[in-house]
Structure formats: structure tokens, C-alpha cells
TrEMBL record:
InterPro entries: ATPase_NBD (IPR043129), Carb_kinase_FGGY (IPR000577), Carb_kinase_FGGY_CS (IPR018483), FGGY_C (IPR018485), FGGY_Carb_Kinase (IPR050406), FGGY_N (IPR018484). It comes from the Bacteria. It comes from Fictibacillus halophilus. Coiled coil: none annotated. This is Gluconokinase. Belongs to the FGGY kinase family. Transmembrane segments: none annotated. Residues 4-250 form the Carbohydrate kinase FGGY N-terminal domain. SUPFAM superfamilies: Actin-like ATPase domain (SSF53067). The lineage of its organism: Bacteria, Bacillati, Bacillota, Bacilli, Bacillales. It holds the Pfam family FGGY_C. Keywords: Kinase, Transferase. Residues 260-448 form the Carbohydrate kinase FGGY C-terminal domain.
């Protein structure tokens, strides 16, 4: 019986492939890393063929590790990082690297659009569900047209990284609705490419892959894929969706009102609904998982990277400093860090500011504060930032009781997990498995090929969760701290452009 399935997650820094049994337990896996290239200011690119080979190797090795179980694999299903853009020629060969979500070179085009179009920017958001930001291919296309005009003219199509891999396997240009939504070019009401967005990007539908629902699948492997994977040609391939919505499914945050929090290097907070949820000011995203499941929320640039920054800074003074020790020592400090507030915008910010020029800051420093206060303030700042994103969608969720499911590297810090529960004043459930996007892809795949009639009924092993209980004594402290955080963030927002301009001016003057 073919009741085993493979989930493939094409991430920003690595591809992970996991084999799951019929109950959702992982039984074999393999991953392959690849570099993020930054050959000029603001660039964040990857080589498409390196990722293609990483997918092939990880798939082949997972199949090899599965042994006799390979005969029981029924399908492959995909998850992918969002917002990538590759220009390809008529033969499907890349004319550019894969320009990732982290690339901010299109920031001037975003600023010009917001300045020139005003209210139209909100209308565009209402149609696409995507805030205007350099991460989106909509503005990457504007940058490419103006900064690399020869490539823009030569390009036969503009595609994402998953589209490219599937083309290499099946010789067809197809993209799923979730990946299309992340481009900023897809209309969430009509489920077609948005005419006004296409005009802004100066592309036609023919320049983009054919649209498919996330449940679309190929009945058989291509000869190329069968050879590279070692799988039987009768295995199906489900096109799947994007990593954020699939992570919600993988951790069990699929019912209306459920909230998934992920903090790795960056972070995100997402909630599920049966219809699109939009912010009136365009500060949160809304992407499809299926036609009846929508995931709303926001990505943040500054999650674990903020902890890494403070760790590396302190380690210069003391090489014995470890993450575990920093976290443990910061537990000595009371919630609120004695009024020390950290705005965590070290790498600009997506939600809720959508400002690539935003800067981080400590506010409230006094002689009483030491490095333990600073570490606690950094951890609190990252959570307060996520809570500010949640506040945008909370009123629209429509449920008084919220379930929070959390994943990511931050779960290695007992203090950070407790801060999350205390700020949200809600029990936090942390699943023992970590490959939530791969599992989500497989659960979507079972629904797609008809093994389950409802997505919520997808068979999953009874999940084991670590549960973090909020301390009610800290409710008012964090309520007051959040109000202060919001006020300080709003005040500082008026100064980010001036800081950004000053930094750039004096970098040039010093020859950097």
C-alpha cells in the first residue's frame, strides 16, 4: 500500500526533504545547504541550478535512506520560500540568479510608488493581499526593467524557484496560487493575475507561469525525475504551496483563530481563516492555502538574528559567552527589563512597519542597566514586535480564545518561550517535530489526491506538545510595556529616513 509520502521544502538557506508515514511521523530525511549571495549593496541572490541540484540530491538521498519503504511512497508534495524571482530565456535557462525575498534593491521603486499613488497603494493591497515592500516580485520586476533593461527585454518568462525546479522536471511552466499570491501580481478575489499589478510591472500573463490551485498534481513522474530520484514512475507530484501557510498546517494551526508563531533567523506570525482577512491600512499579508483556507499575518525580519547580534557583540568581550548562558542570565531580570525597550529593526522591517530603512534602538538606558537587561530587552523586543503584528489581525479573527503553536530555533531558550506566553497571556504549544512545512506539504498532498475529504481530517500522528503556561502576574507589566513599545516605535518611525540618509552619506564620504 502506497501510504508513505515525501515533503520537499525549498528554504532560503537549504532544501529539506522528509519521508513521512501515514500517521505523519518522519522516518527518513536529508537536507542540503546553499549560499546566499550579496555581491552588491542590498542584493540577496542564489544560483537556481545549485538549488535544483540540492533538491535532487536531498530527494535521492531520502529515498535511499528509506530502503524498502521507497516502494510504499505514493506522492511528493512541495513547500517553498516566497517572493523569489528568476528571469529565464526561451529555453528556460536562467538569465538572472534567483532574487530572494531578502533582496532590497527595489526599495526606491516601492518608495516612489507609495509616494506617487497614495490611495491606489491601499487598493492594490486589497486586491492582492500583499503589502508593498522590496521583497515582492512586483517591485523586483520594476527594478529589473530599469536597472537591467537588456535582461528584462530578453526574458521569455519571470518565475519563482519552485516553478523553475518543476520546469526542469516536467518541461511545463506552472505555479500554485499561494506562490502566485506572494508575487504581489495575483488577485485574491478573481484568482487570476491582476491587470493593474501587471501594468505596474510591465509584464503580460504570457510572461508568467500558468496558474494552478495548490492541490494540482502530476499523475506520474517524468523520466528525468524518476531517474534522479530513484522512485517508481507511478508516484504523483503535488504542486503544493508556500512555507508559511504550510507551516500552519504542519503544526496544527488550521482552525479559525489558531495562531502559528515561528522565530528562526527572521520570524512570522500567522492565523488561519475560511476567507481572506485584510488590514485596512495594508500592514498584514493574506495568502491562500486552499480555496477555503487563508493564512493572514506578517513576516518580521528580526527574530533570532537580534539574539545573534547581541550574542556576537558580547562575545567580543568574553569568548566564553554562549547563547544558553545569555538566556539563563537574563532570567534574573524582571519582565520589562526595568524600562529598557529594544526596537529590533536591525535589518529594516517588514511587518508591521514595511520600512526597509527602519533602524534598531535601545530606549530607556540608565546606569542601572547591564548586559543582562540588554539581552532580556532584545528577547522581549522581538516578541513585542510579533504581538504588534498579531494586534493587526486579532480583531478580525473573531474568536476570544486563541491557540498559539510555536516553532523555530527560539524554542531552545526557555526564557524566550516564556516571554512569548507572558506577552500574549496565552498557553503556547510547541510541537516536538520541527519540519512543519514539509509535513504541511504532505498533509496538503493527501487532501489533493483525495486520501482525505477535508484538510482538517488529514491523518496525523497524535502530536506531542511542550506547553508553556503564561504567568498571570506579568499580564499588566507586559500590557503597559506593549503600549510603551508601540508609542516609541511610532515616534521613531519619523526619523528612520534621516538616519538612513545620514548613514549612507557618511559611508560614502569615508570610502566604504
Amino acid at each position: 500500500m502506497r501510504n508513505y509520502a515525501i515533503g520537499i521544502d525549498i528554504g532560503t538557506t537549504s532544501t529539506k526533504v522528509v519521508l513521512f508515514d501515514e500517521k505523519g511521523a518522519a522516518v527518513a530525511h536529508h537536507s542540503k545547504n546553499y549560499p546566499l549571495l550579496s555581491e552588491e549593496a542590498g542584493a540577496a541572490e542564489q544560483k537556481p541550478d545549485e538549488i535544483y541540484e540540492a533538491v535532487n540530491e536531498s530527494l535521492r538521498e531520502t529515498v535511499r535512506k528509506s530502503g524498502d519503504l521507497a516502494e510504499r511512497i505514493g506522492f511528493i508534495s512541495f513547500s517553498t520560500a516566497m517572493h523569489s524571482l528568476i528571469a529565464v530565456d526561451a529555453e528556460g535557462k536562467p538569465l538572472t540568479n534567483s532574487i530572494t525575498w531578502a533582496d532590497i534593491r527595489s526599495e526606491p521603486y516601492v518608495a516612489a510608488y507609495k509616494s506617487d499613488y497614495g490611495g491606489d497603494a491601499v487598493e492594490l493591497y486589497k486586491r492582492t493581499g500583499v503589502p508593498q515592500h522590496p521583497m515582492t516580485p512586483l517591485f523586483k520586476l520594476q527594478w529589473l526593467k530599469n536597472e537591467r533593461p537588456d535582461i528584462f527585454k530578453k526574458a521569455e518568462k519571470f518565475v519563482g524557484i519552485k516553478d523553475y525546479i518543476l520546469f526542469r522536471w516536467f518541461n511545463e511552466w506552472k505555479t500554485d496560487h499561494a506562490s502566485a499570491a506572494a508575487t504581489g501580481l495575483w488577485n485574491l478575489r478573481t484568482k487570476t493575475w491582476d491587470e493593474e499589478a501587471l501594468k505596474l510591472a510591465d509584464v503580460t500573463p504570457e510572461k508568467l507561469p500558468d496558474l494552478q490551485p495548490t492541490t494540482y498534481y502530476w499523475e506520474n513522474l517524468s523520466d528525468i525525475l524518476a531517474k534522479k530520484s530513484g522512485l517508481d514512475s507511478s508516484v504523483k507530484v503535488v504542486i503544493g504551496a508556500t512555507d508559511g501557510p504550510l507551516s500552519n498546517l504542519g503544526v496544527g494551526a488550521i482552525s479559525p483563530g489558531d495562531v502559528a508563531v515561528t522565530i528562526g533567523t527572521s520570524g512570522a506570525i500567522r492565523t488561519t481563516s475560511t476567507s481572506p482577512i485584510l488590514d485596512t491600512e495594508g500592514r498584514s499579508f493574506c495568502y491562500p492555502l486552499t480555496e477555503n483556507h487563508w493564512v493572514s499575518g506578517g513576516p518580521v525580519n528580526n527574530g533570532g538574528i537580534a539574539f545573534q547580534w547581541i550574542h556576537d557583540l558580547l562575545q567580543k568581550e568574553d569568548e566564553s559567552v554562549a547563547y544558553e548562558k545569555l538566556s539563563k542570565d537574563a532570567e534574573q531580570i524582571q519582565p520589562g527589563a526595568e524600562g529598557l525597550v529594544f526596537l529590533p529593526y536591525l535589518t529594516g522591517e517588514r511587518a508591521p512597519l514595511w520600512d526597509a530603512q527602519a533602524k534598531a534602538s535601545f530606549l530607556g538606558l540608565t546606569l542601572r542597566h547591564n548586559q543582562n537587561h540588554m539581552v532580556r530587552a532584545v528577547l522581549e523586543g522581538a516578541i513585542l514586535n510579533l504581538f504588534s503584528v498579531y494586534s493587526l489581525i486579532k480583531s478580525q479573527v473573531g474568536k476570544s480564545e486563541v491557540k498559539i503553536f510555536a516553532t523555530g530555533g527560539f524554542t531552545n531558550s526557555s526564557l524566550w518561550k516564556q516571554i512569548l506566553a507572558d506577552v500574549f497571556q496565552t498557553k503556547v504549544s510547541i510541537p516536538e517535530h520541527t519540519e512543519s512545512s514539509c509535513l504541511g506539504a504532505v498533509l496538503l498532498g493527501r487532501f489533493a489526491i483525495g486520501e482525505t475529504k477535508k484538510l482538517e481530517e488529514a491523518p496525523v500522528e497524535t502530536k506531542q506538545y511542550e506547553e508553556i503556561i503564561p504567568n498571570p502576574d506579568y499580564k499588566n507589566v507586559y500590557k503597559d510595556l506593549f503600549q510603551l513599545y508601540q508609542s516609541l516605535s511610532d515616534t521613531m518611525q519619523t526619523q528612520y529616513k534621516a538616519l538612513h540618509d545620514f548613514q549612507n552619506k557618511h559611508k560614502k564620504e569615508s570610502g566604504e
